[in-house]
Specification:
The chain folds into four domains: 71 residues, no CATH class; 129 residues, 2-Layer Sandwich (Beta-Lactamase); 81 residues, Helix Hairpins; 142 residues, Heat Shock Protein 90, CATH 3.30.565. Helix 6 packs parallel to helix 10. About 4% of the residues have low confidence. It has a six-stranded antiparallel β-sheet. The chain has a five-stranded mixed β-sheet with strand order 8-10-11-13-12. Strands 7-9 form a two-stranded antiparallel ribbon. The chain has 475 residues and is an alpha+beta fold. The protein is built from ten helices and 13 strands.
Length: 475
């Protein structure tokens, strides 16, 4: 059961059914109350009409024996000021709700006595003139038995002032059987119809959600298959509905493509790193084995050089791994002009030109060590390809700090200006690894620049060589 309710389809069906159920109950209750109110109002109107008809007869002096009390088999009572029943329908056997339970009239008082009683209570209730019928009508509910038939009634009480019999009150009732029948019928229809309607709503919602979620199930199955097969080249089906599900499938495919590219880059990186590490390790091992066999042939300088190369390569790989892991740079303030002079110090043919004047004008926020590594890699690359000179320029360009490293070498062909920032890429394949390095310097420089919110690009230099521009947000 919990598994069933855990599905979106089941929850959507249950939710839709509950909402419709609440709406139906609220609407049904409102309909029943309105129907009952209208029917009760209609019964009250009928009772008042009957009472006023009898009151009209009393107002014109009609004797009790000649009153229309048995019309439509409705209960009618005529009560005097003393609360004595003076007239009633012949078939009335029992009555409640009027305040007078008597069903058999009592002998009428003499006109003189009635007149005296009327004078004594002239101010009681609504003041009326002889022959006048009261405007106010009192409504009450009760029951009555007429000729053996018991039924609920709505009673209307109408006062009338007579000339010879004083003030009388006429009680007339209208049956509530129509109200009860209509309400019971409506309630029966609702009790039968509402469950059927809810079943239809649930069934339709179940079918609609199944159709709507079918592409999602297809995506789930394909993702499960991709996970099981580890084949990131597969893609999930994209429905042609142009809705949220289609966008989900497209985004999933984009994620799979990015994951595939990332895994492929990782595989290439591991393969290239293994290849690059193999050369210095093999060279160092060879020298150590020769030295072990022939100590006099030990090339100590070569062994140290290979060890240094191995150490630098390991440091580069570690830095790349940290950058790939998303390590955030420190938030220190770094003066790029000072940093450039420090990195250029001791390098032959390298000059630094600061544009803009003020000390500290070209300051950025970031890691001093990583930014120093960027400048060192750019200078190493420039010196490797320069004929005679390397110029480092530092300037402020709006909200950016710009560092340029230009050489007077052969430059970088335009077709290769993006490829040189890839890892383990060397444009001169004939160049020895000892002279050319592992091909990680520019890749590291660009990754650090991106981590600091900046860019690193290469263009043609003013002296015909290459110009590398590092642009970072100024602090």
């Amino acid at each position: 059961m919990s598994r069933l309710l855990g599905s979106v389809r089941a929850r959507a069906t249950l939710g839709a059914t509950l909402v419709v159920a609440v709406a139906l109950v609220a609407a049904g209750t409102a309909v029943l109350l309105s129907l009952r109110s209208n029917l009760l109002g209609e019964a009250g109107t009928q009772a008042e009409r009957s009472a006023r008809e009898v009151a009209t007869e009393l107002a014109v002096g009609t004797p009790y024996a000649d009153l229309s009390l048995d019309v439509d088999d409705r209960p009618v009572q005529v009560v005097d000021e003393d609360g004595t029943l003076v007239a009633a329908g012949e078939d009335l056997e029992r009555i409640t709700g009027t305040g007078v339970d008597a069903v058999k009239p009592q002998p009428a008082a003499s006109p003189g006595d009635a007149g005296d009683d009327g004078d004594d209570d002239e101010d009681a209730g609504e003041p009326l003139e002889p022959g006048e019928i009261g405007e106010r009508t009192t409504i009450s509910d009760g029951s009555a038995t007429i000729d053996g038939d018991a039924e609920d009634y709505r009673f209307a009480a109408v006062p009338v002032e007579t000339e010879d019999r004083g003030r009388l009150t006429v009680y007339a009732g209208a049956p509530l059987s129509a109200e009860h029948g209509a309400v019971n019928t409506a309630l029966t229809v609702m009790l039968i119809g509402f469950p059927v309607l809810l079943a239809v709503v649930g069934w339709v919602t179940w079918l609609v959600t199944r159709r709507a979620l079918r592409p999602v199930e297809g995506i789930r199955r394909e993702m499960a298959a991709i996970t099981a097969s580890e084949d990131l080249a597969r893609r999930v089906p994209v429905p042609g509905t142009h809705d949220e599900v289609a966008r989900l499938a497209s985004t999933t495919n984009e994620t799979l493509a990015a994951l595939e590219a990332s895994v492929e880059r990782q595989r290439r990186f591991v393969a290239d790193a293994s290849h690059e590490l193999r050369s210095p390790i093999a060279s160092l091992r060879t020298q150590l084995e020769v030295a072990a066999a022939h100590p006099e042939l030990l090339d100590l300088d070569g062994a140290v050089e290979d060890t240094v190369r191995l150490q630098r390569l390991a440091a580069d790989l570690l830095l790349l791994a940290r950058l790939d892991a998303g390590e955030r740079p420190a938030d220190a303030r770094v003066d790029l002009a000072v940093l450039a002079r420090e990195e250029a110090a001791g390098r032959a043919g390298v000059s630094v030109r600061e544009e803009g004047g003020e000390t500290g004008a070209v300051t950025v926020a970031g890691s001093r060590g990583q930014l120093g590594r960027v400048l060192a890699n750019l200078l190493d690359n420039a010196q490797r390809h320069a004929r005679s000179a390397v110029v480092v320029s530092v300037r402020r360009d709006g909200g950016l700090a710009v560092v340029g490293v230009a050489d007077d070498g052969d430059g970088v062909p335009e077709a290769d200006r993006e490829r040189i920032f890839e890892r383990f890429v060397r444009l001169d394949d004939a160049r020895s690894r000892d002279d050319g390095g592992a091909g990680l310097g520019l890749a590291i420089a660009r990754d650090v620049a991106v981590r600091h919110g900046g860019t690193l690009t290469v263009h043609g230099g003013p002296a015909g060589g290459a110009l590398f521009e590092l642009r970072l947000p100024a602090a």
